[in-house]
Write a structure and sequence with these properties.
The chain is mostly helical. It has 3 domains: 54 residues; 68 residues, Tetratricopeptide repeat domain (Serine Threonine Protein Phosphatase 5, Tetratricopeptide repeat); 57 residues, no CATH class. It is 69% helix and 0% strand. It has 10 helices and no strands. The longest helix is centred in the first third of the chain and has 22 residues.
């Protein structure tokens, strides 16, 4: 059940990202409504997964055509939207930013090799965005089962653009840790903790990684 929930949430995220491309006139309000429509059943599923409903069940109501909101839309099909964007870009249309959107959609769908190809296309034109290079490195590592010299080169590009990019710092620290360079890993993770805006979960994981590296450092 949790897998189903995670998949639905991932597809919702793709739909919200890609919908403005295919329906440029869609307002932010409409996007919010779509998000609520698709999130409502997820809230109920999460509640039942824990053993009790967390929200009241949604009651179906019948309305005449006159009562339907003028901009009411059917729930978008995220997979179809990805396919449409694929076709558009492969025909030579679209923008580098749309290659990035496609790459991130592929990552959400766990199509990591496709994501790598899309990021490669995006970075032919976008050469100064640290986050894109960090995401590219992450997708490459996922496609190959781990970080290697190619993904590390992308991490270094990201850090050259922005030495405080959180993902790049985290990945660089992981490279050092995997190479048993525990002191460098600790230094990088401590630097990561100085970056404002980190979520508490990320902070907790980073602190745990530092503690683990310190423990291993004492053994060497």
């Amino acid at each position: 059940m949790l897998l189903i929930i995670a998949t639905c949430m991932a597809l919702t995220a793709i739909a919200i990202v890609l919908l403005p491309i295919f329906k440029p006139g869609v307002s932010k309000q409409t996007l919010a409504i779509i998000g609520l429509i698709m999130a409502a059943p997820l809230s109920g599923l999460i509640g039942y997964e824990m053993g009790k409903p967390s929200v009241a069940p949604v009651q179906a109501t019948s309305k005449s055509n006159d009562e339907v909101a003028p901009d009411a839309l059917p729930a978008p099909d995220p997979i179809k939207m990805v396919e449409q964007l694929e076709a558009k870009l492969k025909n030579g249309e679209g923008t580098p930013d749309q290659w990035v959107m496609l790459a991130r959609s592929y990552v959400t769908l766990k199509r990591h090799q496709d994501a790598v190809s899309a990021y490669a296309k995006a970075t032919e034109k976008i050469t100064n965005d640290a986050q894109i290079y960090a995401d590219y490195a992450d997708a490459l590592a996922m496609s190959r089962g781990g970080l290697d010299k190619d993904s590390e080169a992308l991490i270094d590009k990201a850090m050259k653009i922005d030495p405080l990019n959180p993902k790049a710092l985290s990945l660089k620290a992981t490279v050092a840790f995997n190479n048993k360079d525990y002191q460098s890993a600790i230094t990088l993770w401590e630097k990561l903790l100085t970056v404002p805006g980190l979520s508490q979960d990320w902070i907790n994981v980073t602190r745990g990684s530092i503690d683990e590296a310190r423990g291993l450092l004492k053994l060497h």
